[in-house]
Amino acid sequence: MASRSFFPAVFWGLSAILVIALSFSLLTSLFLTFTSYTEESIGWLIIGVACLSMFIGGFMSGAKAKSRGWMAGALTALLFTLITFLVQFLGYNEVFTTGQYAFHGAYLLLAALGGIIGVNIASNLQK
After folding, report:
1. pLDDT tens string 21-44
2. Longest CA span, the chain
3. Which of 35, 46, 68, 93 is most buried, by CB atoms within 10 Å?
4. Terminal-residue alpha carbon distance, the chain
5. Cβ neighbours, 10 Å, residue 74
6. CA 46, CA 50: separation in Å to the nearest integer?
7. pLDDT tens, 87-120?
8. Helix, strand, coil proportions of the chain in percent (round to 5)?
9. Is the C-alpha dihedral spanning 86, 82, 10, 106 positive or negative?
10. Up-side HSE of residue 90: CA atoms within 13 Å toward CB?
């Protein structure tokens, strides 16, 4: 595996996560603005979409990397966690809570699993 194909693959996965997250945030904010629902009432939907976006991002990075999918997916999740931590710490002067560490640990596992599946599906499609 050449590093020239590995790191762009990770950034493709990270880009997919950010696009999905930002798009869903826009749709959710519009939904909450024009309805009587609260953020607490759709909390499980938000968590589900976050988990799905991490899996898709890991899948994309694994498929593009074509090998070491678990590493591509895990690195994608770690970069997302770093960005989230920096925004929260530098922008809001708050550190991660124990619950957030648990969520980001689950994101790491989901993205690594997505990377593994992405490598296997991409290699099966090439045959």
Report:
1. 999 999 999 999 999 999 999 999
2. 52
3. 68
4. 18
5. 21
6. 6
7. 999 999 999 999 999 999 999 999 999 999 999 9
8. 85, 0, 15
9. negative
10. 6
